[in-house]
Write a structure and sequence with these properties.
heterotrimer; A alpha/beta; B alpha/beta; C alpha+beta; B: Rossmann fold; seven-stranded mixed sheet; C: Alpha-Beta Plaits; two-stranded antiparallel sheet; two-stranded antiparallel ribbon; 4 helices; elongated
């Protein structure tokens, strides 16, 4: 019998987070928002952070608006409430802007990452926060993720998120996608890398 | 080798059953428990878990099959939630009366109507009189730890009672966090195989569960009372041993968080406790002498421990994520019962978070500040419902 | 206030518990307003030339979204969730499930 201690927060951290980072994903059922929140958590965990990933549940069905959340912290994440004031908002489907207030509670210095072919200055969300855009749908279709009508954009948008926020290293994300993407691992990894290069803003 | 994995509370439950080498799993799916059953079914199908997985047609049958398995000397595990647990009610009583150490996970979910699949402790607390030990978990790691520990406690020859591991719907069941999945050998060292004194055996036929005439029934009940009285000590003992082996303290009967010499004691159960600890830290930094007691073992109720803990406290603020149709919530009532005739602090019962209503750090801070204010102004209301539509402004400000 | 109004009084936009009815009821139009047809990914198309008006699809439809008229079965696309049970049960194969996206 031996005694073993597990340290959740190792000290060899690459990036110092002063506060907990809270991320909110807005998508539609079938686009992979929940998996995205989980993959991002896995990547941050791989870099020694404590993490939490959870979806908001309502009526589950393809096409319905979906919200998913990720928390990342240097310290143990104890807060088990929902995320009301995110640091980062990620929009997987621009059509949601009509029905969902995606910037609700967004912190003054928070960032928004949007899946659209438009440059950031052409998107008006009514807030002054920095905006980043990437055509994740096009990238997903190019790599054969989902169908033309309903591309699965989660891994592509994550590549853009990583570039825009520096929350994790892109190599860590790609490695996590290769290990944990439910299907088409290599294609998903490539989509993330391509979006990382193509994201626009700031 | 032990391994850190990012898993949901439901998967943590399933891995707990696997590591405990549960031999029979009979379960029926219900939201939000379904993933427990799915995961175990796939672990069995892939040959990673050596268990008999029985598909049943209801929760009543799930517990019936677990009872039969346990009676035959197998380690039995099941899981359910809310209405499924209510349907099991009769057999929960049978499991304890028959002294079978079946361990189950109940995912706390509100009872309908109105239909709800979200977190609420009513389902579990409605079964508090069925002879099940009840352990409320704060995070996913504790869910896994508690399943393993529960077998160790329940299968002790002095105890031999069933247990429920309780996790909050969605807040734990569907939230993914880092969880250490222990090395199987380590768990095997901690938890020996289940070997009851008597079991169903064709070579040595015995009759189980027969009639108890009035001249004997009461004595069988007394034996359960005796066993229940021994549980608190056993919980602390197993908890200590667990910490020695796995390097982690799941919390025993009551987890005391900064409770030394406090004036105000907050009592919570389940996942609320985790968020509350951040708030306690904040209030202590602001100079308030406040601490948190996380009520982990609800059955049997840790009466002695509360008497000790509340000895010098001025105010006890109890957060009840349940309303069980009596006078307020269950935890506050049982605490008052425990300290009656011993201590006389102000005890205020806050009814919170029913049907999954979110408990933000802000709301929790307002509750705790309200409890602190009672030291000067005295008890205003015995029971207060927090964050109702009519008083949301006050609690969310 | 007439007696009828008193019995069925339901506050459409309740503010707090005082506006709620004693039991969990919703005003009837709420189900009519919740057009669950938007959940559909496959759309049943009835070939009225083949339909023999047997009513089997009406009997099996779990959403009560099929009405059998003089000239054959008619689907209420406001509420049909596109499960395809009707197409499966039709004895003369008069119902075909087609991709919803071709119709919107």
């Amino acid at each position: 019998m031996y005694i073993q201690k597990v340290i959740i927060c190792p000290l060899d951290r690459e990036m110092v987070l002063l506060n907990m980072i809270e991320i909110r994903f807005h998508g539609r059922g079938g686009q992979g928002s929940v998996i995205a929140s989980e993959l991002l958590a896995r990547a941050a965990f791989a870099e020694g952070k404590d993490v939490q990933s959870f979806p908001m549940y309502g009526v589950e069905r393809r096409g319905a608006p979906v919200t998913a959340f990720t928390r990342v912290d240097e310290n143990v994440v104890r807060d088990k409430s929902k995320i009301h004031t995110p640091d980062i908002v990620i929009v997987l489907d621009m059509a949601l802007l009509d029905s969902v207030d995606v910037t609700e509670g967004l912190k003054p210095d928070g960032k928004v990452i949007l899946n659209t072919g438009k440059p950031p200055e052409d998107v008006d969300l009514g807030v002054d926060n920095p905006q980043y855009t990437v055509d994740a749908s096009e990238i997903a279709i190019k790599h054969g993720l989902g169908s033309k009508v309903a591309p699965i954009v989660n891994t592509a948008i994550l590549g853009a998120v990583v570039k825009a926020t520096g929350i994790v290293n892109i190599d860590t994300l790609v490695e996590v996608i290769r290990e944990h993407a439910p299907a088409k691992k290599e294609e998903n990894a490539k989509a993330a890398k391509e979006a990382y290069e193509k994201v626009r803003g700031e | 080798m032990s391994e850190m994995k990012i898993v949901s509370g439901n998967y943590a439950s399933a891995y707990g059953a696997k590591l405990s080498r549960a031999e029979v799993v009979a379960a029926y799916p219900i939201t939000p428990q379904t993933e427990v059953v799915e995961k175990i079914a796939s672990l069995v199908a892939e040959g990673e878990m050596d268990a008999e997985f029985i598909k049943v047609e209801s929760e009543h049958s799930a517990m019936a099959a677990s009872i039969a398995a346990s009676n035959a000397g197998a380690r039995a595990y099941t899981a359910t939630s809310a209405h499924g647990l209510a349907l099991m009610h009769e057999l929960l009583m049978w499991a304890s009366g028959a002294r079978l150490p079946i361990v189950m996970t109940n995912i706390n979910r509100a009872m309908g109507p109105p239909w709800s699949v979200w977190a609420d402790h009513h389902d579990t607390l409605a079964q508090k009189g069925t002879g099940q030990l009840q352990f409320f978990c704060e995070n996913n790691q504790e869910v896994l730890d508690s399943v393993i520990m529960a077998y160790k406690i329940c299968e002790d020859e002095e105890i031999m009672l069933p247990a429920m591991i309780v996790e909050d719907a969605f807040i734990l069941s569907h939230t993914k966090e880092p969880v250490e999945i222990y090395d199987q050998e380590l768990v095997d060292d901690f938890l020996p195989p289940y070997d009851p004194d008597y079991k169903l055996d064709v070579d040595q036929p015995l009759g189980f569960g027969s009639l108890g005439m009035p001249d004997w029934y009461m004595d069988f009940r007394y034996k359960i009372f005796e066993a229940m009285e021994k549980v608190p000590e056993k919980v602390e003992e197993v908890n200590k041993e667990f910490e020695e082996v796995f390097g982690r303290d799941p919390g025993g009967l009551i987890e005391e968080y900064k409770t030394d010499g406090v004036d105000v004691l907050i009592v919570t159960m389940g996942s609320i406790s985790s968020t509350s600890k951040d708030v306690i830290d904040e209030l202590r930094e602001e100079g308030h002498n406040i601490g948190l007691a996380r009520l982990r073992t609800f059955r049997p109720f840790p009466v002695e421990k509360f008497r000790e803990l509340i000895k010098d406290v001025n105010v006890v603020g109890v957060l009840d994520r349940n309303y069980t149709f009596g006078h307020g919530g269950d935890a506050a009532r049982e605490i008052k019962d425990a300290i009656y005739g011993y201590h006389d602090p102000i005890v205020k019962d806050y009814i919170v978070g029913l049907g999954g209503r979110d408990l933000t750090p802000k709301i929790l801070k307002n509750i705790m500040e309200d409890a602190i204010s009672l030291q000067d102004k005295g008890l205003d209301e015995e029971i207060e419902w927090v964050d109702l539509k009519v008083n949301q402004e006050r609690w969310r400000r | 206030m007439s007696e009828e109004e008193e019995v069925f009084r339901i506050v459409v936009d309740p503010k707090d518990h005082r506006d709620l009815p004693r039991t969990v009821i919703t005003d009837c139009p709420s189900d009519l307003m919740n057009k669950t047809g938007s959940w559909r990914t496959l759309r049943p198309i009835v070939d009225k030339d083949k339909c023999i008006n047997c009513g089997i699809c009406w009997k099996f439809c779990p959403d009560v979204s099929i009405h059998v008229k003089e000239d054959g079965a008619e689907v209420d696309y406001d509420f049909c969730k596109g499960c395809g049970i009707c197409a499966k049960e039709c004895p003369v194969d008069a119902i075909e499930m087609k991709k919803e996206e071709d119709y919107v």
